[in-house]
Structure formats: C-alpha cells, structure tokens
Amino acid sequence: MNLFNLTGKVAVVTGGNGGIGLGMAEGIASLGANLVIAGRNVDKAGPALATLRALGVKAEFVSADVTVKAQCQGLIDAAERLFGRVDILVNNAGTSIRKMPQDFTEEEWHQVMDTNLTSAFLCSQSAYHAMKKVGGGKMINIGSMMSLFGAPYATPYASSKGGIVQMTRALATAWAKDNIQVNAVLPGWIDTDLTKRARQQVSGLHESVEKRTPEGRWGVPRDMSGVAAFLASEASNFVTGTAIPVDGGFSIGM
Ligand code: NDP
C-alpha cells in the first residue's frame, strides 16, 4: 500500500506561479501528479514551471483571472485538454488590501472577496463536474490565521478567509457522496510577496510574528508542501471539511 502516490493524477493550483501556491504545487508534484498552475502574471510562470518540471512531472501554466466565472471554467477545461482529467484543485489565489474598515470603498471590498472567496467557489463548481467524471477528487482551500482571528486592517480579508472555512464545510457535506474530500489549510505567517507588502504596511509585524510563533520564525512556501501532499493523496480519504493550521504554533500561543 502506498498512500502517497499521485502518479497519473492531475492537479490544478490557482496562484501556483509563486508563493504558497508554488510550495503546495511542489508537494503535490513530489508525489508524481502532473500540474496546471494558473494566474495572471505570465512572467512568474517560467521559473515556477521549471521548479515543478525538475521534480519529474509535466507542468503547464494557464493564464486565468479566477474572479471571472468563465475563466474558472476555462481553466478546468484547459487542464482536461492538456492532461485528460482533473483530480485535485487547490484554491490558493488571494489578495489583501489593508485599511481601517471605515476607509474601504465598495469596490475594494468586492476585489478582496471576489479574489479570495468567490473565486474558490467558482473554481470548485467547475472542478466538481470534472472530478465526478473520474470518480472523485480532492479540493484544498487556503484560509489564513484571519480565518480564526481579527485584525483592525483586515475586514474584507478576514471575512473572506472566515468564509473559506464555512464554504469548505458546506462543500464537504455536499460532495462527500461523490467521493470528493474538501479541506482547508490555514497558513501562519509565510514569507511571500503578499506578506512583504504587509511588513511594509504594518509596523512591527515582522518581529511580533517571530515572537508569537513557538518556532520563532516566519514560514517559507515549502512549509506548505507536506500538508498539500497529505490532503491531495489517499492518506486523507477519511478527512473532510476540516481546517488545518500550518503555522509553526502561532495559533496555539498566548
Ligand atoms: P502571493 O501574492 O505570492 O500569491 C498570490 C497568488 O494569487 C499569486 O500567484 C497571484 O498570481 C494569484 N492571484 C491573485 N489574484 C488572482 C486572480 N484574480 N486570478 C488568478 N490568480 C490570482 O501571496 P501568497 O503566496 O502569500 O498567498 C497565497 C494564498 O495564501 C492567498 O490566498 C493568501 O491569502 C494565503 N495566505 C497567505 C499567508 C502568508 O503569510 N503569506 C498566510 C495565510 C494565507 P498572479 O499575480 O499571476 O495573478
């Protein structure tokens, strides 16, 4: 029995062209699945594809804005065209705008909610039909410490990431009978483009994260590889609807 073999499987990772998405894609690729990574920035795709192909799998980039329903469907269609099937979806694309709640425009609210939450719903809807065709699948949604906590500068972000946890539970109950497991991952503070901007905008953030995290450090994208491998593989076949913190202990400290 090899619970950690994804040979012949196909994974789609939104925002897989960098940061946490690439870290998760590496974990899945290391078990043998072929990968489709999606995003808007083609320039970041080349190095990401090289990283994945170096692991011995096939990998392609599909340009997609996942806030647009037709582009979510186009992404899943493209993965089926390229590799014949879709078994795994990682809803990782995300963004943040940091302001006090009273200062957000309606457009900014929608930009964060659409990128972080609505996109995950739309891609999941499209992937559901592809997964049904192959007898089941795995969906992994990316939440945040803001799925658990609040922060003054993070109203739409925390709302979207709290929503990810509840959407995960709802989808898990809906699609269990189709052999689709739906889980969320709640990363701690990980060093990526997104948090480089956060550290510029939130004074003292770098040090406060180091201080609160029992491991005493920020995470790196590869810290997310193992949980992606677990949730994408047969090892997690009786795990569904859960939200797993991967945070070096940030969420259990005082
Ligand atoms: P990055 O900014 O490095 O990654 C965000 C990714 O999302 C990029 O690859 C980007 O690709 C993609 N993306 C954004 N908007 C869209 C869109 N409309 N359509 C398609 N792709 C899009 O940041 P992270 O790696 O840090 O973030 C990844 C996820 O992890 C996000 O959901 C974030 O909220 C979450 N997270 C991050 C934490 C951290 O500490 N870093 C902590 C907790 C959660 P492109 O630019 O090509 O469109």
Give the arrangement of secondary structure elements.
Layout: E1 10-14, H1 19-29, E2 34-39, H2 45-53, E3 59-63, H3 69-83, E4 88-91, H4 106-133, E5 137-142, H5 155-175, E6 180-187, H6 193-201, H7 205-212, H8 225-232, E7 243-246
Parallel strand pairs: 1-2, 1-4, 2-3, 4-5, 5-6, 6-7
Helix pairs in contact: 1-2, 1-8, 3-4, 4-5
The site of NADPH dihydro-nicotinamide-adenine-dinucleotide phosphate has 30 residues, from helix 1, helix 4 and helix 6.
Description of the molecule:
The protein has helices spanning 19-29, 45-53, 69-83, 106-133, 155-175, 193-201, 205-212, 225-232; strands at 10-14, 34-39, 59-63, 88-91, 137-142, 180-187, 243-246. 43% of the residues lie in helices and 15% in strands. The protein has a single domain, classed as NAD(P)-binding Rossmann-like Domain (Rossmann fold), CATH 3.40.50.720. The protein is built from 8 helices and 7 strands. A 7-stranded parallel β-sheet has the order 3-2-1-4-5-6-7, sandwiched between helices. Strand 5, helix 5 and strand 6 form a beta-alpha-beta unit. With 254 residues, it is α/β, with parallel strands linked by helices. The termini are far apart. It binds NADPH dihydro-nicotinamide-adenine-dinucleotide phosphate.
